[in-house]
Amino acid sequence: MNDDAVQRLAELIVRFGANVQPGQVVAVGAEPGKEPLARAIAAAAYEAGAKFVDVTYFDLHVKRARIALADEESLDYVPPWYGERMTQISEMHGARIGLTGPVAPGLLDDLDPQRVARDQLPFLKETIEIVNARTTNWCAAPCPTPAWAELVFPELEPAAALDKLWEQILHVCRLDEDDPVAAWGERAETIVGVASRLSDLRFDAVRFVGPGTDLKVGLLPSSTWIAARFETVDGLVHMPNLPSEEIFTTPDPLRVDGHVTSTKPLVVAGNIIRGLRVTFEDGIATQIDADEGADVMRGITKRDQGAARLGEVALVDGDGRIGPLGTVFYDTLLDENAASHIALGSAYALCVGDEDTEAINTSQIHIDFMIGSPEVDVIGVTASGDEVPVLVGGAWQV
Predict the structure, then answer these.
(1) What is the DSSP string of 49-66?
(2) Which domain holds residue 132?
(3) Same-domain status, 134 and 199
(4) Following CA atoms 246, 249, 253, 256 in sequence, which dihedral angle do they give, to the nearest 10 degrees?
(5) Which of 142, 163, 194 is the endpoint of a domain?
(6) Where are any strands of DSSP class E within 226-370?
(7) Are residues 256 and 323 in the same domain?
(8) What letter would DSSP give residue 355?
(9) Spatial distance between the Cα atoms of 40 and 58, rounded to a whole number of angstroms
């Protein structure tokens, strides 16, 4: 691990991603094995004037013990102080930083998938509520670890695999540019512009067509496409995902029909789901199959009434830095910014007007899975039924 690389990534996350301000409390979420970057983030945050940096580590091995040994009826219990901590950070208008990337791939693979599906930690339902309230400036960013590197590059020796993972993370975060912030500013202008044009077109639905996929996702009357840059209620501009290549909106949870095949594996509750195939009827995921991990996904969609409906639809073009690498990262943050995707579960209210807030999907989960590739075309559908090409061969048509 290169200390300079750790420092540069930490500073980009703090100064540009989360945009930490003087006097803010900063909450950092990590896992054992990510201590060097977490500590560098804490130092960078204090240099930025943070009042206090609170780093918490979620241990997946402790989660494994709970799933394997605890009473089944207790597996969906979340101690109230978890949510209260998040609420306090929101009320204080603090900053939040989360480090992604697996530290123990496959650790839960041999456990009962129904039990695994019941424990959604470290995900908290309050997270979506806080995002919708826009009270915190926040950023999720990748943290390379040896186990993650071996998962992504199994053909390499461990040290070489970790070096290559770091190299690719620095590349997709644009830290190989002379001025990474300026490079991100240029990219953000492009995708924010596309998001604005998509919103102006007021499509009634978007349709995904490709190998194993023909899915029509209805939109709400006020569905607005947003990208890259968020702004808090206090006017703080920040980049919630680093890297970020997606343009997304909130769909109509009652109008999703067709079938879709995932184009990348996804990691859910510590399990790798491969070859996911989902059929939707009237907004509900009525059939879920997969080459691996189908039972986990089926269990998750039974979590509550909204878990089997969509809360997000997102588009990603071919000009980003992640997709062209051809690397499967087994990390939702990176893989979802490599390909268009949809998400089961809770929706983002910030993508709709007040008149449609009651219509969006609500759930205790939010699970993204990738459905895009250069072979999957995205078509906008007007209220009169006309179809307009939006994304063809990975290139914007709007």
Answers:
(1) T-SEEEEEE--HHHHHHH
(2) 3-142
(3) no
(4) -60
(5) 142
(6) 226-227, 230-231, 237-238, 246-249, 251-261, 266-268, 271-273, 277-281, 284-289, 310-316, 341-345, 366-370
(7) yes
(8) G
(9) 18
328-384 confidence digits (pLDDT tens):
999 988 998 999 999 999 998 989 999 999 999 999 889 999 999 999 999 999 999
On whether residue 149 sits in a domain, the answer given is: no
Q: What residues pair up with 366 in beta bridges, in sequence order?
A: 345
Chain mean position to CA 334: 8
The string of pLDDT tens digits covering residues 66-115 is 999 999 999 999 999 999 999 999 999 999 999 999 999 889 988 998 89
Query: Are 23 and 75 part of one and the same domain?
Result: yes
Cα–Cα dist 381/387, whole Å = 5
User: What is 326-340 written as a DSSP string?
Assistant: T---S-HHHHHTTS-
Q: Is the dihedral of CA 241, 325, 372, 196 positive or negative?
A: positive
* C-alpha 160 chain-centroid distance: 27
- CA atoms in the 13 A half-sphere facing the CB of 53: 23
Q: Which residues contact 159 (CB under 8 A, 6 or more apart)?
A: none
The C-alpha atoms of residue 135 and residue 90 are separated, in whole angstroms, by 5
Q: Is the peptide bond between 243 and the residue preceding it cis, with omega within 30 degrees of 0?
A: yes
3-class DSSP assignment, residue 34: coil
Per-residue model confidence (pLDDT) at position 254: 97
Give whole-number Cα distances, 276 to 106, 260, 293, 361, 366, in Å: 17, 8, 8, 22, 16
**Gap between the terminal Cα atoms of the chain:** 42
Contact residues for 314 (Cβ-Cβ < 8 A; gap 6+): 246, 247, 248, 249, 336, 340, 341, 342, 343, 368
Token duo for residue 26: 């900063």
CATH classification of the domain holding 115: 3.40.1830.10
The number of domains in the chain is 2
Question: Where among 116, 142, 168 does a domain terminate?
Answer: 142
